[in-house]
Write the structure tokens for this entry.
Amino acid sequence: MNAPGGQASGAGVHASALHALRVCDPSLKCVSVARLLEAWRAGGLGVHADDPEPVRIEVPGRPEWPVLVGPQDLPRRGLHTEEGRKALLHAIAHIEFNAINLALDAVYRFRQLPPEYISDWLQVAAEEARHFGLLAGRLAELGAGYGDFPAHNGLWEMALKTDADPMERMALVPRVLEARGLDVTPGMIRRLETAGDHASVAVLQVIQREEVGHVAIGSRWFRFLARGRGLDPETTFLNLLEQHMPGGVRPPFALEARMAAGFSRGEMSALERRAAAQARPDTVG
């Protein structure tokens, strides 16, 4: 039997995170996450050796809508129209909803890590849930809701690719996919300001500030795991990037935000070099 508020009755933190991960209704998932963090911080939830071992989660808890399509099939809309602004906010809300599941999966899946790891990722899950709530509220003000537009599944696809190794997860989800949000959100904010949508700007400014901390948590635990294996974190990160994303990471890069989120100057220089090499046209000798 499941207890209310994101905890499986009599279970430990890992099984409780799985329970919250499987909740499909967005509002209930957000409540579950908040109560899960509260229980953990209050000491009412611990690590139980008899929690079930982690299994692959092909499809996490999510509502029937939105329809998932390939990134190339998402409609492109300008922010000069209200419909375009709705579509943008919906796309970000979908990212935040996926980020809730990713943080819960990071708790559920990867064991034998310090309690601080669990604290960090439960905090991230709760903050992502709050971000989702802010975006859902703004969409409602515009007469829209989560599920009204199609979305893509890229974040969870990367979660599946990295579900066997916490070091790869920390490298490729927070430090690549979520760090991308640090790069592109300032441009979105400028475009929304130009469109006069100051209420949406305020929401994105909150998200941008807190996402720096989320990427920093990914950086912290990536380095912890790499060093625990006797690996150089900077070299390992760049090697993983080459292995899984040979096309590199596209600029522009929000240098100040990325540095605050735990990227080294060496990593940023390497990202910039790789981006320049990808952009350079082939020459014929």
Summary: Residues 1-5 have pLDDT under 50 and may be disordered.
